[in-house]
Amino acid sequence: MTREIRGSNYVQLATVTESGEPRVRTVVMRGMLLESFKFITDSRSDKVLQLTCQPIAEMCWWFSASSEQYRFRGKIVIVDDAELRRSQWNVLSSAAKDSFLTPGSLLESNEVPKTFLMLLLEPEFVDYLRLTDNKHLQWEKNNCNWVKTEIDPSLTKMVNSRH
User: Fold this and answer.
1) Domain spans of the chain?
2) Which residues lie closer than 8 Å to 10 by C-beta, 6 or more apart?
3) Residue 4, CB half-sphere, CA atoms under 13 Å: how many?
4) What is the three-class DSSP state of 135?
5) Three-class secondary structure of residue 93 per DSSP
6) Which of 39, 103, 115, 150 gets the highest tally of CB atoms within 10 A of its CB?
7) Which residues contact 145 (CB under 8 A, 6 or more apart)?
8) Angle ∠(105,88,40) on CA atoms, nearest 5
9) Measured on CA atoms in the order 13, 95, 52, 88, is the torsion positive or negative?
10) 58 C-beta neighbours (distance < 10 Å), count
11) Could you give the CA distance from residue 33 to residue 135 in angstroms, rounded to a whole number?
12) Burial code of 142-162, b = ≥16 C-beta within 10 A, e = fewer?
């Protein structure tokens, strides 16, 4: 992720509704915390209810310059640690902070609104695809170890051609 490339931190995040319907939206990935991807969200958003009911999500990250796609699937944790939330809040622009306020509300300078949430996606599965040569790899977390599988593109084409 680099700030020199506009939009390089925009990713798609998919969740599932209570009734099992998929929902996908573009969100801003705010960096990493240990091995987890960081996001922020408003507690009033639909994804919070979806993640409370089904705390699993998939993130898709596309790199147009190299024609590479990564998909990360795993558990989502809603961070309740006040210090982590405050440190993320403090790096937001004023405009971003304003989006978490309700009309007429005022905040003390160090106060983090209850509507401000920080989410962590803890990957358990990674799917990598490079379209220039159809290189396709997958990693799955098994306890604390990652197991890598190389997908044969010719087998993928055969399976896909049957549909």
Assistant:
1) 10-161
2) 26, 27, 28, 29
3) 0
4) strand
5) coil
6) 39
7) none
8) 75
9) positive
10) 19
11) 28
12) eeeeeeeeeeeeeeeeeeeee
Structure tokens at 85: 């939330």
Q: The tokens of 25 are what? A: 């939206």
Per-residue pLDDT tens for 4-41? 556 678 999 999 999 999 999 999 999 999 899 999 99
| Residues 41-93: tens digit of each pLDDT | 999 999 999 999 999 999 999 999 999 999 999 999 999 899 999 999 999 98
71-82 pLDDT per residue, tens: 999 999 999 899
Question: What's 6's DSSP letter?
Answer: T
Fold (CATH) for 10-161: Pnp Oxidase; Chain A (2.30.110)
Q: How much is the pTM?
A: 0.84
